[in-house]
Specification:
The chain is an alpha+beta fold and about 280 residues long. It is about 35% helix and about 20% strand. The protein has 3 domains: about 5-70, no CATH class; about 90-155, Orthogonal Bundle (434 Repressor (Amino-terminal Domain)); about 170-270, Jelly Rolls. A hairpin with a 5-residue loop joins strand 1 (about 175) and strand 2 (about 180-185).
């Protein structure tokens, strides 16, 4: 590159870039004391033009590298629902997305129609995704995970290979009443929301635990393994001994009473109604 090319290019640079006072003061100290002022200015301008041009060329190279990287990356179509778009970036994990979606939907007891209403993704598209007949876009996966109240990665991550999960008693979640007479220990992992929950309940002798009405459609299925239990549901009293079980609609106030002189131990399966909408 000739000096004339450098000069022509540098003359188009912003004035504040080529004539910064601190650069001039630094250059001025480099010149011999006996050099005439006009000669110093001419050499200084030439040097600054070269430096500025190098900055421009370096910046263009950096931007060109970044653009090339972006161009080489898969494009993400976030506006279309169709699974036939070009290179969504999810084609490699589409079978995993479908399998995870079906597993989670069935665990929560959701129909395709209900999930379609909640997510805004058509029933047909959801079915195609589950059957690996269509590759979902990023936008579609966002809609589905948002409706399921899950992180985006939930549908893209392979489920654990473990078929069994041990819940050590020492690490279990135990809730107690304010007076300590009633305790409830969760016998299920808190990894996601679920419609069915399993608890171990304990009630001290002569203890009483009053429960408010649960959401409509909630069902409790309870069995006694130790001691005696008087279950009061809607004003009706039911006396249970070890081995006995009771099932009732829990959308009304109910009470657990221990009429005996020893601790009562029972196990409860609570089933929630399917969420509407």
């Amino acid at each position: 590159m000739t000096d004339s090319t450098i000069t022509d290019t540098a003359t188009r640079l912003p004035f504040e870039l080529t004539r910064r006072s601190w650069e001039w003061s630094r250059l001025w100290s480099w010149f011999p004391d006996g050099m005439p002022g006009p000669q110093k200015k001419a050499l200084g301008r030439k040097h600054l033009r070269r430096v500025s041009l190098r900055r421009i060329v370096s910046e263009k190279k950096r931007r060109g590298t970044n653009q090339a990287t972006v161009a080489a990356s898969p494009s993400f179509d976030t506006n279309r629902e169709s699974g036939s778009q070009h290179r969504t970036g999810l084609s490699d994990v589409a079978p995993m997305v479908g399998a995870n979606l079906r597993r989670i939907r069935l665990q929560r007891g959701l129909s395709l129609e209900r999930l379609a209403q909640a997510s805004g993704v058509s029933r047909a598209m959801l079915g195609q995704i589950e059957l690996d007949q269509s590759t979902p876009t990023i936008n579609v996966v966002f809609k589905i995970t948002r409706a399921l109240n899950l992180p985006f990665s939930a549908l893209l991550t392979a489920p654990s290979a473990e078929r069994a999960k041990v819940l050590p008693a020492a690490k279990s979640k135990v809730l107690r009443s304010h007076d300590g007479t009633f305790s409830s220990r969760a016998l299920f992992p808190f990894d996601e929301r679920r419609r069915v929950e399993f608890y171990e309940l304990r009630l001290v002798p002569l203890g009483v635990e009053r429960a408010e009405a649960h959401a409509p459609g909630t069902v409790e299925n309870l069995t006694v393994t130790k001691g005696a239990l008087e279950m009061v549901v809607g004003g009706d009293r039911h006396l249970l001994s070890p081995g006995d079980a009771i099932q009732f609609e829990a959308d009304t106030a109910h009470e657990y009473r221990n009429p005996g002189k020893s601790e009562t131990v029972m196990y409860l399966v609570m089933t929630y109604a399917e969420k509407q909408g």
